[in-house]
Amino acid sequence: MSEPAAAPPPDGTGGTQGGGPPVCPRHPDRTSYIRCQRCERPTCPDCQRPAAVGVQCVDCVREGSRGAPVARTRFGAPAQAGRPVVTWTLLGLCVLVYVGQLANPVVTRELAFVGVLAGVEPWRLLTTAFVHSPSSLLHIAFNMYILFAFGPMLEQALGRAKFAVTYVLCALGGSAGVLLLASPDPGWYTAVVGASGAIFGLLFLYVVLTLRQGTVPTSLLVMIGVNLALPFFVSGIAWQAHVGGAVTGAAIGGLLVLTSAPGRSPEATRRRALTWPALAGMLVLILLLAGVRLWQVMGPMAFGYAA
Q1: Domain boundaries, the chain
Q2: pLDDT digits 0-9 by tens, 180-238
Q3: Which architecture characterizes domain 85-295 according to CATH?
Q4: pTM for this structure?
């Protein structure tokens, strides 16, 4: 009795040597007369994926997804940015520092912003945004709530790096507001704490970005108005930091709107490339204004030099 001949081995294109029926390259035991629209190799039902016309094999679909352009927001951030890592980090740092303040008053003393020390201890311009009043749980709770509510939206729209830089700039703007608007005596000798400057910066940034779309929530404007007016009825609130942060956030929002554009055209790419120089210019401006004000009031002593 004669035995059936063995099937010829498949060739590199999914066919078979010797002119046999075409087989799926991934499943050589399966005959398939349907070919991938991209590589034209035979593909069995398990390896077929629907395409605009016909089907593609799983290998071509995987290769195509690697080279596909990533969807991005108007400001150049990936449309699917994942978890708001920067927002959670900022929240965690503020809570951690607050716990440290409760444990040791030295933390508040070393990190709070004091105007007369800004020239010789410039880190206070930023560290004050992570320090809150140890005697008021409401202080940190309000700031962290606003950061929790608006941080993830802004982080997704701007991207992690731009959002982190924006927060830092708004915090610096709040401290600069104290130097520019507060009376040197006693304002510069009073410790200022809180993330309010940075928080107001984020709120006004959000307002500018939503104004571009014409959809600013009325409730948000009312809340901002109430908080801007609150220092005039409640003592002990550094309204100058609120104003400084708000102006900085609004200015950054305007810069982002001017340097952003939808799409992937050369013009849109060129405009988005201006974002980082614009943010760097904002940093230089904030520090320059603070430095000039310090020199104007205190002279060389502001930076540790003898008069």
Answers
A1: 85-295
A2: 999 998 889 999 999 999 999 999 999 998 887 777 777 788 888 887 777 777 667 88
A3: Up-down Bundle (1.20)
A4: 0.76
